[in-house]
Amino acid sequence: MTKSNDNYKDYMYNFMVKICKEIGPRIGWSENERKAAYMVRNELENYCDEVEIETFRYTRSFYMMFRIPIILNIVGVFLYILTFFGLGYNINSILSIISVACFSLSLIFLIGQYIFNIDIMSIFAPSGQSQNVVGKIKPKNMGAPSGERKILIFSGHHDSTWHFPLMDKFKEKFILFMYVTIFFLFGSLIISIINLIWILFAIPFNGILDLITRILYIGCILFLGIFSIFMIDRNRPTLGAKDNLSGVVTILGLGKYLAENGRPDNVEVWCVSFGSEEGGLHGSKAFVKEHLTELKNAIAINADTVGEGKIRIAKTELLTKHDPRAIELIDTAANNLNISHSIIGSGGGRTDAWSFTEKEIPAATMIALKDGRKMPDNYHTVRDIPENVDQILLKQALEINIEIIRVIDNDEFEI
User: Fold this and answer.
1) Number of C-beta neighbours around residue 123 at 10 A
2) Burial per residue of 170-196, b for 16 or more beta-carbon CB atoms within 10 angstroms, e otherwise
3) Pairing outcome for strands 320-321 and 298-303
4) What is the DSSP-derived secondary structure letter of residue 411?
5) Helix (H, G, I), strand (E, B) or coil at 136
6) Are 217 and 77 in contact (CB under 8 A)?
7) How does pLDDT run across 81-117, given as a tens digit for each residue?
8) Fold of 6-60+127-164+237-409
9) What residues does each domain of the chain span?
10) What are 156-173's pLDDT values in tens digits?
């Protein structure tokens, strides 16, 4: 049941090309993203017993991640400067307290949004509607109640993002900019607290402290400014072939394979294409929230940027560790097929598997990278086009998914 032929590889690649040519870029909650969702739905209807479009709303708070902090930092620095104008003890104390609050909020907003993926700045961001596509393939044996049936979820996301000039320029080193920015933010907060203490206790002005303050404040505004201005080029949306039509076409290939070669005996298969993954994993978070009670016997296998190098299994995503069972399941399937792969951390990004893991549903993501790389070529750039996708990796990802179904269906692996 495991090996596919080149017809599936060609089918997957051709569908990728079709979306890119007929629809183009698919920014979250845009009309093009909606068109892509319906194109995926129409295709899945050929292979699945049930296919639904599930709509949800969200805000683009992720893209406010640097704008709001830089405004707060500019205000904080301005208030700090005012304390040098002899406004009196009480006014200087109030200004310093507000300055500390500005730096505190700036750090909370940035870390909350980036590190913990909390939509903490949603009140400042516009909102819109997006769509998930959920296709279900029932097992041959329907004896087990739906709440007790084993479920395997295979997923990708059909939206794309804008061109990221900083990422294009610095590649893997891009993440260093983020950490340096957080360092300056944290340093600015500490130094603003120290300055407040000096004012409250009338400690004489210190030239060294002032120099450190200026360095930290200037560095903070400089790096936040670089991110705000140069991180995203909103005039250049990307086609998102690797990221992540590569994942979407693997679930379509899986649906086609099961329709033509026979569905599993005892496992229910869900083929899911998420909307609005870019900028906050909004589609997968909405999906998990909607279906949480149904997923107690589920494992989620996500595919993202499967387009170059070798298959990798992401065991961590920032501070989140994926369930070892999901990692072992993908690893076992790849080993059974003698597909070259490795288990890695995902660096500074997240995938839709994160949304499942956060709710204690076993999940992991297959990605593809060249040896020694932490980021794919052309990631979040206008060069992410079908011609730069290795079709062999699409076939390998499909075959791993097929083997995962076989292993679970034959009780060779316990969920």
Assistant:
1) 10
2) eeeebbebbeebbebbbbbbebbebbb
3) unpaired
4) T
5) strand
6) yes
7) 888 787 888 998 999 999 999 989 988 888 888 888 8
8) Aminopeptidase (3.40.630)
9) 6-60+127-164+237-409, 64-121+171-231
10) 999 999 999 988 888 888
